[in-house]
Write a structure and sequence with these properties.
single chain; alpha+beta; four-stranded antiparallel sheet; about 40% helix; flat
Length: about 210
Amino acid sequence: MSITPNFSWYSKESKKKCVSPRCPHATPQKCYKYYASIYLLGELSITSKVSENKVEELDKYWNDSDIIPLISEHEPTVTYSDSNSLDSLCNFCPEVSFEAYGLFTTYMHRYIDDIDREYVCSRLEREGNRDDWRWSWMSIKALHYTECDNYSKLPHIKNSNEKSDDLLEMKPGFLGFNINLKVLFKILSSDTDNTVLKKIKTILSFLSRRS
């Protein structure tokens, strides 16, 4: 049975993964893929266009970063027909796909011809599947944001001058170590998935071996 990557599916995946329901980095200055996906839909007039001033500002921001794709195959892309209607999208941010089409996908492709579309739609009609994505799309690829190739690289912090602090400090204290509470707070506040628990267990395990 094919997946219907609607909000119900997405939120269930988020709950299973113990993360926020929607991607916390889905903004144009935190995620290049989000920005590029929004930009392309605007260029096709599927959504409003990003203003020229904003495009210039964001292009400079991301060109100065080390996170944009090196080759075009990794870029969000679209193909369209002679009538300027969308045929397919690829490598898209699922958050953007949902806002435009109601499906959390990274890839979507229209039917190649009317014969294929009419055949599938006739079958869906007989089965009573009124909400199936196959009414409009020949194929799709569902994607949860935690499985996005960009997610592990985010958030992108440019020109950071912050000093990197260690969680365990070699200072007089319990077992010869102090816990840097400021850094621990950063870890707990920056993570939203179960990796937090793993980090805490690692710390406690280390301390127990020292006792």
